[in-house]
Amino acid sequence: MEVLNLFTMLGTIHGLLVVSAILSLANGSGHSTKPNIVIILIDDMGMNDVSFHGSNQILTPNIDALAYNGILLNKHYVPNLCTPSRATLLTGKYPIHTGMQHFVIITDEPWSLPQRERLMPELFREAGYSTHLVGKWHLGFWRKDLTPTMRGFDHHFGYYNGYIDYYDHEVRMLDRNYSAGLDFRRDLEPCPEANGTYATEAFTSEAKRIIEQHDKSKPLFMVLSHLAVHTGNEDNPMQAPEEEVAKFPHIKDPKRRTYAGMISSLDKSVAQTIGALKDNGMLNNSIILLYSDNGAPTVGIHSNAGSNFPYRGQKESPWEGGIRSAGALWSPLLKEQGYVSNQAIHAIDWLPTLAGAAGVSLPQDLQLDGINLWPSLSGNEEPKPRTMIHVLDDVFGYSSYMRDSLKYVNGSSFNGQYDQWLGELESNEDDPLSEKYGQHVLASEVQRILGNRGLTEDRIRQMRSEATQECPLVEGQDPQDPKFICDPLKAHCFFDLAKDPCERFNLATLYPRQLQELADEVEQIRRTAIPSARVPISDSRADPAYHNGNWEWWNNTETGSSAGTCSLHLLTMILSIIGLVYRYCFE
Ligand SMILES: *[C@@H]1O[C@H](CO)[C@@H](O)[C@H](O)[C@H]1NC(C)=O
Ligand SMILES: *[C@@H]1O[C@H](CO)[C@@H](O)[C@H](O)[C@H]1NC(C)=O
Ligand SMILES: *[C@@H]1O[C@H](CO)[C@@H](O)[C@H](O)[C@H]1NC(C)=O
Ligand SMILES: *[C@@H]1O[C@H](CO)[C@@H](O)[C@H](O)[C@H]1NC(C)=O
Ligand SMILES: *[C@@H]1O[C@H](CO)[C@@H](O)[C@H](O)[C@H]1NC(C)=O
């Protein structure tokens, strides 16, 4: 009798749940209420390579219009390298807490973002989102169950490695004795059909197709993860459509000119992607986040002639040039729009922030490092002080840490090769259109799509100047004075970014006690780090020669994938609900 009562009660509860689920689906005449989330991730673009930070050399009117109408993220921090940066976005955790703190996944290395991590697409999918990755993954593919569609994305169109050729989509590992291989897929199937299409255009078309065909009763979660402006293969690194490169005759260096063409194509893509959201009635309920995964590599490995100037260093270095990233957030759901944010934000924050904005409840046990900044961004609140570990790589042996405006650097990468101020632009290479910069932005496609929201040339001028970093020298201070010089390979250094954002005045000898405090804090953080997950082995079984000329998983062992367990749970739950409802209705 009691057992029967329990069943009846459970049945009632489940019945109500089912009814409310049906009601919530029907709500809004089939339109989802959760906001669509589109993350436009750019690869290896420098802070000084969008025009909203003040450069007149390469104009990016569409990207700029997005920033001026939304929030221009002026203190946006990221890990200094591709794989760690992408792992951070998708987990909401520092690389030291996922094992991704050391280096990138080289094509033939058998490791990945550990499977125990639950990723943003998986969490959003559970909340009803349809989830898509277009473009780069770079979080491991040596086993099939590590690839994007096995890790929370309903759909993937793109590549697994760090870069591909922009046109034939092959990866050629010149330092190994491997065949060239195609690294381009639609879900799990190789996709040679796109051969010949410039990567930025191929990804943009796919993003448009996804938006057009999207079931509007569900919210959309899409990461549009561009190849641009990373280099292609070493034998042909700089690739851009000729008509785009031709727009930059004012740039003399041919490499930088091609880079400008890559940026220009990307700027067009941003307009097309936002246009598709508009045309499909989705824009007014969307959140668009755009940023570069890390600073530009001006020189050295994969150098693309990008510029982080006047910030120090570049990609894969401990300096601001490697970890400050150009970024913008746009949404009609933001209460305050059209301002420059000086809130320090880190890529760890996007998972809780976007979940907060979308009302996606996150499991308690995720152990996120990031915080939900949506309320403070939306309200344009006074910036909160933040503590951030930027780099802690005990294999290469360097660290970079920030407590509010105080910064600590110990050790460096590549023997200090990237410790300089790199990528200063020629002074006489302004785009002639920059004379009417404000008008140029107001005439952009993105401005037209977003509609006039009261943005004026004056407002543009003001926001742009707030977001332009100048580091003029103060009278009586000489950065060449030996006491200010930082050689982090010899001794750890200490900067005050509030006064010295360009990291020219090492205060270590002046404030040894504060320096030691920061060093102690890094030691505390080090205790929370887990070992690097990297497996630095060249596994020749990855050679595309063994995989029909494709880059493909080369180990077919499947570990008990959490996705499988999860859908089994779901199935059991659904069956038990059906059983109980049946019992409730017919017994
Ligand atoms: C490179 O490939 C060639 C042709 O398959 C083979 O003969 C040679 O032994 C390989 N060399 C190395 C170092 O693996
Ligand atoms: C791509 O097309 C080019 C030109 O037609 C051809 O030479 C190349 O083999 C193709 N590559 C792939 C991976 O299909
Ligand atoms: C968004 O636009 C669509 C199509 O134009 C319209 O049906 C819907 O009511 C709008 N929603 C909001 C929240 O403004
Ligand atoms: C600074 O670097 C030295 C040399 O690599 C290392 O022994 C020390 O632990 C580092 N300190 C911190 C706080 O990272
Ligand atoms: C595949 O990977 C598993 C570990 O995930 C390992 O135990 C096994 O030896 C690997 N098999 C091959 C053929 O490399």
Structural notes for this entry:
There is one protein chain. The chain has 587 residues and is α/β, with parallel strands linked by helices. The chain has one domain: Alkaline Phosphatase, subunit A. It has 15 helices and 18 strands. It has helices spanning 2-26, 61-69, 82-91, 120-126, 199-213, 242-245, 254-279, 320-323, 350-358, 374-378, 437-442, 445-450, 457-466, 512-526, 562-586; strands at 36-42, 71-73, 76-77, 130-136, 155-159, 170-171, 181-182, 185-186, 189-190, 220-225, 286-292, 327-330, 339-341, 345-346, 387-393, 398-403, 406-410, 493-496. Helix 1 packs across helix 15 and helix 5 runs parallel beside helix 7 (254-279). It is globular, with a radius of gyration of 25 Å. Residues 555, 557 line the site of one 2-acetamido-2-deoxy-beta-D-glucopyranose. Residues 397, 399, 410-411, 492, 519, 522-523 line the site of one 2-acetamido-2-deoxy-beta-D-glucopyranose (NAG).
**CATH 4th-level superfamily:** Alkaline Phosphatase, subunit A
Tally of helical runs:
15
CATH-level-2 architecture: 3-Layer(aba) Sandwich
State the distance separating the first and last CA atoms. 14 Å
CATH topology: Alkaline Phosphatase, subunit A
Weakly predicted, low-confidence segments: 1-29, 561-569, 579-587
Tell me the strand order in the biggest sheet. 9-8-5-4-10-1-11-12-2-13
Report strand %: 5-15%
Percent helix range = 25-40%
Shape: globular
Oligomeric state of the chains in view: single chain
